[in-house]
């Protein structure tokens, strides 16, 4: 399952796309050519807002969406580069925030 940024667009493989749609309760993702970082951050905010944070059963959905949103946010702030080690870097930066 991959989610990565290239040429300013967020690229998502089919497996990750299905997972995101499930986590977001079916909220449609922006079209592939419109998946800018800003558009996807907005999508994540909308998806996260639809989760009942007081329902323990929703915790995995919430955590998955928050982690991907954090990754995109760090990238947009210039704390990550477009390399294969982005996830390791994200975890390192996340620990420092």
Output the keywords.
97 residues; mainly alpha; two-stranded antiparallel ribbon; 4 helices; 2 strands; 8% strand; globular
Structural write-up:
Helices cover 54% and strands 8% of the residues. With 97 residues, the chain is mainly alpha-helical. It has a two-stranded antiparallel sheet. A hairpin with a 2-residue loop joins β1 and β2. The radius of gyration is 13 Å and the shape is globular. It starts with a strand and ends with a helix.
Q: Give the DSSP E fraction (strand runs of 2 or more residues).
A: 5-15%
Structural class: mainly alpha
Overall geometry: globular
Question: What is the arithmetic mean of pLDDT?
Answer: 84
Radius of gyration: 13 Å
Tell me the distance between the termini: 25 Å
Number of helices: 4
Count of beta strands: 2
Largest sheet: 2 strands, antiparallel
Estimate the helix proportion, in percent: 40-55%
What string gives the helices and strands in order? EEHHHH
Poorly predicted spans: 90-97
**Order of strands across the main sheet:** 1-2
Topology:
Blueprint: E1 3-6, E2 9-12, H1 14-23, H2 37-49, H3 59-76, H4 86-96
Antiparallel strand pairs: 1-2
Helix pairs in contact: 2-3, 3-4
Quickly describe the structure.
The protein is mainly alpha-helical and 97 residues long. The protein has helices spanning 14-23, 37-49, 59-76, 86-96; strands spanning 3-6, 9-12.
């Amino acid at each position: 399952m991959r989610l990565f940024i290239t040429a300013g667009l967020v690229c998502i493989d089919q497996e990750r796309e299905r997972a995101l749609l499930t986590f977001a309760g079916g909220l449609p993702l922006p079209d592939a050519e419109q998946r800018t970082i800003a558009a996807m951050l907005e999508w994540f905010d909308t998806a996260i807002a639809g989760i009942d944070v007081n329902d323990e059963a929703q915790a995995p959905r919430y955590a998955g969406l928050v982690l991907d949103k954090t990754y995109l946010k760090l990238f947009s702030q210039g704390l990550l580069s477009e390399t294969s080690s982005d996830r390791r870097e994200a975890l390192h930066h996340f620990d420092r925030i």
